[in-house]
Specification:
The complex is a heterodimer of chains A (111) and B (145).
Chain A: H1 2-27, H2 31-57, H3 61-90, H4 98-109
Helix pairs in contact in A: 1-2, 2-3
Chain B: H1 9-31, H2 40-58, H3 60-66, H4 69-92, H5 110-141
Helix pairs in contact in B: 1-2, 2-3, 2-5, 4-5
The chains are: A mainly alpha (111), B mainly alpha (145).
Amino acid sequence: MAGIVIAIILIAAGVFFLTVSVLGLLRLPDFYARTHAVGKSETLGTILVLGGLAVYNGWELSTAKILFILFFVLIASPTATHAVARAALRTGLQPWTRQKAAQKRKKAEQP
Amino acid sequence: MIKQHYQSIVIQTVCSLLIPFIQLFALYVIIHGHYGPGGGFQGGVLLAVSIILQRLYLGSKISYRKFSPKMALAFGAIGMLIFGFAGVVPLAFGGAFLDYENLPIFWVHGAELRALGILIVEIGIGLAVFGTLVLIFDSLVGERW
């Protein structure tokens, strides 16, 4: 019984973090901020959901498989985010700032 | 804009750690193909992905030295030959095309022989898909080899 409660709490927390990451992906202004949102909170959300599933499952073979998936997600997802953001920086994508956005808005309004 | 072009240690470490696991899982998918989900095509794609990941993080110069496109060509051809022989050899021993029960392996009989034939064909398909996908990647990148 206690295992089920812990699993529900973990999965609910994971769904919360996944929702936050989706909000960040939709609402944040530029590429770097979006990778920041997706890279951190999506990894944490996936880990929490998988950990909840592992707790719910108990000691079985499939739990070991879930833990393997958790481990590889934990390694691979931030690395992929790092690689993509690094490639963007090296090809010269400028980060978003408040001043640049304000200048662009002025230019668009003037003519 | 950053002008230095150095290799990222994070990507190198993680990729070199992940590639053996990907290859192990690919072998599992190929061997396990006739009991559960998976099979030759999926396992071959996973093997090819491990090599393509190596090409991406090492750069083509070093990666070609470790696994050259000619070797990929050879693997694809060997896989296709295995598939072809598993299809044609039963014809010579009095069966139909891909009729595994007539393969000339005389110490196995019946259903076991059929399972073994499926395994042989899966290995052939896996090798062929592996070589072909690596070759497609190398042709799309378009460097000389």
